[in-house]
Design goal:
It is a multi-pass membrane protein. By secondary structure, the protein is mainly alpha-helical. It is built from 23 helices and two strands.
């Protein structure tokens, strides 16, 4: 038997102790340090989480407001709408690829300074947008905005994995994707009214004020969540002293899983140390969390994860949800104004429907996801496989194609406008689960390298978003009905591909375990 056969399969773990009182197993195993984020009090964790959500909501809200003023901006600045939209495409591209620089820096020197830098830069970028005079400046502005905005796409999720155990992450990832999606949908609503009543400049000025408020909030209330435990899932498994007995398939599953048994909560264990003072929490830099070699490896290693099917599939699924969002954005103004005679303010108001849909999705990708995963785990004698939660995509395979047909085919047949509103509500409802589920799948599968694998996911996601910008116009030349029937079937095919991962996902993870654990062990720094 080769040494690789003794390595646990990444992502397979014992989440419920079926031998004892069927208590939930804490994973990863927390240290005894009172300042380990996993040991923080409930209030301290919630404050940290909602600061991450404040960053997500306010950064996304301020940055997406421009969509409602593209026409007046084009008229005043003499920049074509095609150029303005192309600049937005470059921003989305850099939101993904920019992470190759921002992510390693954040994981090495701290997430708090990176979030602060991102917010301060966005404040300046939004003010700059008022004074832009030509296409070149616009392109430069959007590229820089995308680069500094990269943490919103992949660093927030890693912050959530710092704070919460495996059985808790599903709910909080769901809330994150709802905040990310809803902020994008809601921004055009207020921006349209600000443009009509105050002028297009005030859309940028108000956005800059929001960015400034975010900087103040983060400076005083956001804590650093980076923490070196000096261990990985692999070392935890070995330290647990697991007895290998492979007489039955269930025993083999448990041998493959990472099975550290820790059921005591932080409040039930004796913790060492003293909680950091408020002044120390405000320090922008506290310690170094990775070596130079690891930092540089994190800059190129996400490109190596393109060979991991789990990561690539997650990126494609998440990217597809952004594609349908972009298709909605590209056709909304045209359909509402030309087919239904809506005014600009009513077009903005129509975005309340997908906003409400996104908020409603908390119940599905938050609460239902969490309960479903625990039910699946208990049904399988305590073993959690990352593929377990993928079954929740079955509803998305029905609702998202229905939404696209309601929107595009409905407009082509000129059905009542409320039908299209229902379609946008469903699109808004489906987008968060189609983001949170692949994010959770990736972090559950490769937790110790989630900062890097999520970067790979976002590179794929945002590259698809960038590419669809060039495909939308020729696609629409097919006619509304044909375009959206095609889109509906393409969407269904992509979502139903989760069945491939349900069938072979564990095999893919098993094949990646040698290289994965090699990367993990080379990245672990001892805790001081």
């Amino acid at each position: 038997m080769s040494s690789a056969d003794h390595l646990p399969i990444p992502g397979s773990l014992l989440l419920v102790d079926d031998v004892g009182e069927r208590e939930i197993v804490l994973h990863p195993t927390p240290s005894n340090d009172v300042n380990d984020p996993l040991n923080w009090t409930w209030k301290r964790k919630q404050l940290a989480f909602w600061m991450l959500m404040a960053y997500t909501w306010l950064w996304g809200f301020a940055s997406c407001s421009v969509y409602s003023v593209l026409v007046p901006l084009s008229e005043v600045k003499g920049i074509s709408l095609a150029a303005l939209n192309a600049g937005t495409g470059y921003m989305f591209l850099l939101l993904g690829w920019g992470g190759l620089i921002t992510q390693p820096l954040a994981l090495t020197f701290g997430k708090r300074p990176m979030f602060l830098l991102s917010s301060i830069a966005n404040f300046g970028i939004l003010i700059w947008q008022v004074y832009i005079t030509n296409e070149s400046e616009w392109y430069a502005n959007k590229v820089i905005q995308g680069f500094f905005g990269a943490p919103i796409e992949m660093l927030v999720e890693v912050g959530i994995t710092d704070l919460f155990f495996a059985h808790e992450r599903g709910f909080y990832m769901g809330v994150y994707t709802v905040c990310l999606t809803a902020s994008n949908y809601l921004a055009p609503v207020w921006a349209g009214y600000a443009n009509d009543n105050l002028g297009w400049e005030w859309v940028f000025w108000i956005s800059a004020i929001i960015a400034a408020i975010l900087v103040v909030l983060l400076f005083f209330f956001m804590e650093e969540t980076n923490y070196n435990r000096g261990t990985s899932e692999l070392s935890e498994k070995h330290d647990a002293g697991v007895v290998h007995d492979t007489e039955s398939p269930l025993d083999q599953d448990k041998e493959d899983a990472t099975v550290t048994i820790t059921v005591a909560t932080a409040s039930e264990r004796a913790l060492d140390g003293t909680e950091w003072s408020f002044a120390k929490k405000l320090m922008p830099f506290r310690e170094r969390y990775a070596s130079n070699a690891t930092m540089f490896a994190m800059a190129y290693r996400p490109l190596l994860f393109f060979r991991y099917p789990v990561v690539v599939w997650s990126g494609i699924l998440y990217g597809s949800s952004l594609v349908w969002y972009n298709v909605l954005n590209a056709t909304a103004s045209m359909l509402w104004t030309q087919v239904y005679g809506f005014s600009a303010s009513k077009v903005g108001l129509s975005y309340l429907a997908p906003t409400l849909g996104s908020i409603a999705a908390i119940g599905y990708c938050g609460f239902a996801d969490h309960k479903f995963l625990l039910w699946q785990t208990r049904r399988k004698n305590g073993i959690r496989e990352p593929e377990d939660r993928l079954w929740l995509l079955l509803l998305m395979a029905l609702l998202m194609p229905t939404a696209l047909i309601l929107w595009g085919v409905g407009a082509a047949r000129q059905i009542h406008w409320f039908g299209l509103i229902c379609g946008t509500f469903l699109i808004g409802f489906c987008n968060p689960p189609m983001g949170s589920i692949p994010i959770n799948y990736t972090t559950d599968s490769y937790k110790d390298l989630s900062g890097e694998t999520l970067l790979t996911v976002m590179i794929i996601r945002n590259s698809l978003s960038f590419g669809i910008g060039y495909a939308i116009t020729p696609w629409l030349d097919m006619g509304l009905q044909n375009t959206f029937i095609t889109a509906a079937f393409a969407c269904m095919a992509v979502v139903l591909s989760f069945l491939i991962m349900v069938k072979w996902g564990k095999t893919f993870r098993k094949r990646s375990r040698v290289s994965y654990w090699k990367y993990v062990e080379s990245s672990v720094m001892p805790h001081h």
